[in-house]
Each structure stands twice: as C-alpha cells, then as structure tokens.
Design goal:
It comes from Luteipulveratus flavus. Belongs to the transcriptional regulatory Rex family. InterPro entries: CoA-bd, NAD(P)-bd_dom_sf, Rex_actinobacterial-type, Rex_DNA-bd_C_dom, Tscrpt_rep_Rex, WH-like_DNA-bd_sf, WH_DNA-bd_sf. It is found in: Cytoplasm. This protein has 235 residues and is of the alpha/beta class. Helices cover 49% and strands 15% of the residues. The strands form two sheets. Strands 5-6-4-3-7-8-9 form a seven-stranded mixed β-sheet, with helices on both faces. The chain starts with 12 loop residues before the first helix and ends with a helix.
Length: 235
Amino acid sequence: MTDAPAARRGIPGATVARLPVYLRALAGLAATGVDTVSSEELAEAAGVRSAKLRKDLSYLGSYGVRGVGYDVVRLREEIARELGLQYDWSVAIIGMGNLGHALAAYSGFATRGFRVTWLVDEDPNLVGSRIAGLTVIDMDALATQPPAGLIGVIATPPTAAQSVADRLVEMGVHSILNFAPCVLAVPDGVEVRKVDLATELQILAFHEQHARAELGPLADLAAVEVADARQEATS
C-alpha cells in the first residue's frame, strides 16, 4: 500500500460514513487471524461493492498490492487515523432517561475509542446519583469543565433537545449526536448526526410492505398455512 496525504483532502461524506463499516469488517477479519484481504473479500464483509470500496480507500491513498490485497493491520490503522481515533475523545451523555441509561452502560463506546466522561441531567432527583459508575451532574457543572474534544450525545425529550444543543455550542462543542426526534438548529462549524430509531423502523416497514405486495397471493397463502398449522397445534 502507498499513502498519499494529498488524497485525504475532500473525502466525500458518503465515503466517511462507510469508513467505520470497513473498520468493523477489518476488526472481524483480524480477530480470525487474517493478515491480508482482497478488495472483493473486504467488500463482501462490509456489504458493499468492491468497486465502491476501492474508490473509497483511494481517497485515503490506500490502493493495496495487486495479487496480494490489503494488509489488514495497516489498513485498520490508516482508517482509524483518518477517523481521528488516535485521539482521546470524551463523551457527555445528556438526558438520563431510559435511553440515556442504556447508552451510559453501552460498552461499545470504549472499545471504539470513545470514553463516556460525563452523564448529565437537570432533574434534581437524578443529579448526584450514580449510573454506570459515573456521578450524574447538571449542565452548569458540565460548563465549569471546559470540554476539549468533547462529543455531546443528546438523549433528552425533543422539547429539551434544542436548549441542550445551544448550551453545548456555548461551551465550544462542535460535534453532537442527537437521539431526540427533532431537527436541531446549530451554527456553521457544528456537526450534528441524527439517530432516529422510529424513522429507521418506518423505512423497514415500507420495504416490508412492498415486499409483501410483490409476493401477492403467495404471501396470503403462506399466512393461511401458518394459521392452519397453529390451529392444528392447539387442537
């Protein structure tokens, strides 16, 4: 592989979104003792076309070796470096409802280079309590600790999300992951990634509905057969 630093400028957003997928696939390959991988094999593991994978990696200056493929360890390091995972990223989770509790207990953050440092809530009944080994603080307390390289995770109800985002921006936070089902208004230079589980389920429902429509009578026949089988099993 060769590195071309100039190629790292202007990486398309769609390519950036796929880099973590490639990183996860490479981690899985490394865990099974694979040292080198072809673009076809890596593309299959990542669920993309090999031509797209090669184009994505070319933005990093990584082209592999003809007849050999990509060095798994080196490519992992290259992608991790491009994603900024060589730095120590701290995470503040704001909103300690059910979702906030689940995120605080999620071990996957630490294994991917992110450290949950602060848990935040404005409920006086929660402030001072311990969750997942951390003490819950309020936004004022977070503001007294200038967060260098902090990523804010908003897990509040939608009615509170914008005010939380405003406070984070005031603190100098430039990266926000928003789980609240609403659109946030932030100034230029602040990156917001939205995670809407309900929307994803609705998209899946759309595809499921159309798949059933294409099956037509076959789907109805299968439903009848399942119903008959259940009736026989209970009779």
